[in-house]
Amino acid sequence: MTVQIDEAALGSALAMLWQRHRQTNLDRIAVLEATTAEVLRSTVDDDAVCEAAGAAHKLAGSLGTFGFAAGSDAALEAEYLLRQPMIDGRLLAEAVTALRTSVQDESDVSTVASDRASSPGDMSYPDSVVRVVSLDADLVSRLTVEAEAIGIRFVSVAKMPPFDTLSVDRSVVVVDDGPTSTWTHSDMLDSVSMLAQRAMVIVLTDRDAFEDRAAFAKAGVACVVPRSQGSRQTVSFLAEALARRASAQYTVLSLNVGSGLEKSLARALAGPDCRLDNCASGAELWDALEQRGADLVVVGFAGSQLNGPVLCRMIRSHPQWRHLPVVVMGGRSASQLDVSFASGADDYLNIALSPHDLDVRLRRHLDRWRQWTVRSDTDPVTGTGNRTATERSLDRTLRLAKRDDEPFALALVSIDRFEQIRAREGAAACDAALRLLGACLLSAFRSDGIVGRWSDDRFAVGLHGVSRTEASERIARELESLAADGFPTTSGGVAHCTFSAGVASAPMDGTTVVSLERVCETALRRATVAEHAVVVSGERPAQYDSDVVDVVLVEDDDSMADVIEHALELRQYRFLRFSDGADAARELGAGHVRAKIVLLDVGLPSLDGFGVLQVLRSKGILDETRVIMLTARSSEAEMLRAIGMGATEHITKPFSIPILLARLEQTHVGAVA
């Protein structure tokens, strides 16, 4: 049977999926490059070679499927070389260089699909209204569309807003200095100068001469944006500025400052937006960093146990805090200043500074740090933490739970039938649904948990001191309420969708974020089959007991799994995914999960594909389930081994989606018959 595929839609989907996993694959290439350098220096160890070979194996499969044929071939060559008893460093370097070149040359083709996803934005200041002073209806329309896509509300006005209607540190005014404006340039500057005293003012203009820039700066304009610049970039700047203003209270930690300087710091940082914690020892400061984090560290140069330069070096060597601003305070000593900066300090301040000058200098560091963290830690669409920031927070909180011998629950929450919503309602509607889900989870769990966007259609929620049963009950209540409310569509109506969640807890289900995530993924797949369900580890929704899914995918590479899952969705197959071989063998072997077809990768953690196949054979599962093996290695011996153990057939990575669907169609018909 011929499987008809919309090539344009398929190309767009692959471009989107590539952007989602591009960084992961680039990181794998970086691992290969580092190992190659060690091979050439003859300093490589067996563990590094094993890790690099695994990275090359995954690249060989995923890059070819995404369309990087040359990159896939280069990855296969690199894997072959790394598995030799004596590694030829020169050939390995050539293969890895070709691999990097292939991806760099071809990846730009795929960037269009994810432009919106990569635009910085934020939902953390939803009450803000941006006034756009312009008579250019087309400009206002474009800005409004981009702003609404990331949750910022625009209001168009024809005249400068009255001064008394502005709120200090809240109002934002965008002034269009274009050809449709009715004021003179000097009148506009006078008005902007007054507005800038109470609002952040952004000017859109075609004036780019030095004299014009100087005039805007004197008027207090926060940003001068060319009118020719894309509306998305303009709105992105607004989103970052709003996020910085909406950020929570600053936390400043101090050490070795003495009673006199402590009082100066307290006066300088007085106010509800700053919290100053004076630590009695370096251990206390480090513990505060681990538990609560900080926005700035102020440390005296001298210290009986830990001086400023040593603390600077400790912070700069820590992967999580290496970018944290550190200010050293001391006397008028050139040598102390030199030592402090050589140790990584961001600034060196004289202890005799007045509270006012101290406040100005410290707040400059705080503002820059907040701006950096907003850009690097915030998901642009939902305003929740991004994957990197969320993983960091979850890991820290899990370690605290272990130390205190308390439970920790992790949940993955997803939107059911996300791709169908995207196809039916469009990307803007999907963004609206994601923002709504993110805001709901933040509102419910921000006070006692961690909420962040985990992937394209799901969020992670971490709860310290909460059992998995309690976590599932709380999440179920929130999702049921949200499903009833619905979300706004681009046509002005209201659409409804359902949500599912998988929940796991430490130490029962795992002791690391990675191990808990795998359990959550399995539970979430079961919940998704039932739709609108919350499943804890080891539990199955009632509908699941008598159901047999079409396909079980056992694949540990997320990028490959995404492509295969998209293929399954194209044919509306019901499927589950396992990322761990032992988990798949246990669930399939016990009959907890039943499938017509199992797509089984060979290189799996815990238990490889042949081990899984052996379990299925010994349990009699192969009597009613067809198994298709997936691997980037396609030797005849391996193929014969798989067939001899009961596999129906063998597909070599990389493969095309139409070929995979055709094989599935044939196998599925045979399984049903």
Summary, kept brief:
This protein is an alpha/beta fold and 673 residues long. Helices cover 51% and strands 17% of the residues.
Characterization of the model:
- With 673 residues, the chain is an alpha/beta fold.
- Strands 2-1-3-4-5 form a five-stranded parallel β-sheet, sandwiched between helices. A five-stranded parallel β-sheet has the order 7-6-8-9-10, sandwiched between helices. A five-stranded mixed β-sheet has the order 12-13-11-16-17, sandwiched between helices.
- Strand 1 (129-133), helix 6 and strand 2 (153-157) form a beta-alpha-beta unit.
- 41% of the residues are buried.
- Mean pLDDT is 79; it is low at 106-127 and 542-546.
Secondary-structure map:
Layout: H1 7-40, H2 46-66, H3 69-82, H4 89-106, H5 115-118, E1 129-133, H6 137-149, E2 153-157, E3 172-177, H7 185-195, E4 200-205, H8 210-218, E5 223-226, H9 231-246, E6 250-255, H10 258-268, E7 274-279, H11 282-292, E8 296-300, H12 308-316, E9 326-330, H13 334-342, E10 347-350, H14 355-377, H15 387-404, E11 408-415, H16 418-425, H17 427-445, E12 449-455, E13 458-464, H18 468-485, E14 487-488, E15 494-495, E16 499-506, H19 513-530, E17 534-536, E18 549-554, H20 558-570, E19 575-578, H21 581-589, E20 595-601, H22 609-618, E21 626-631, H23 636-644, E22 649-652, H24 657-672
Parallel strand pairs: 1-2, 1-3, 3-4, 4-5, 6-7, 6-8, 8-9, 9-10, 16-17, 18-19, 18-20, 20-21, 21-22
Antiparallel strand pairs: 11-13, 11-16, 12-13, 14-15
Helix pairs in contact: 1-2, 1-4, 1-20, 2-3, 3-4, 6-9, 9-14, 10-14, 16-17, 17-18, 20-24, 21-22
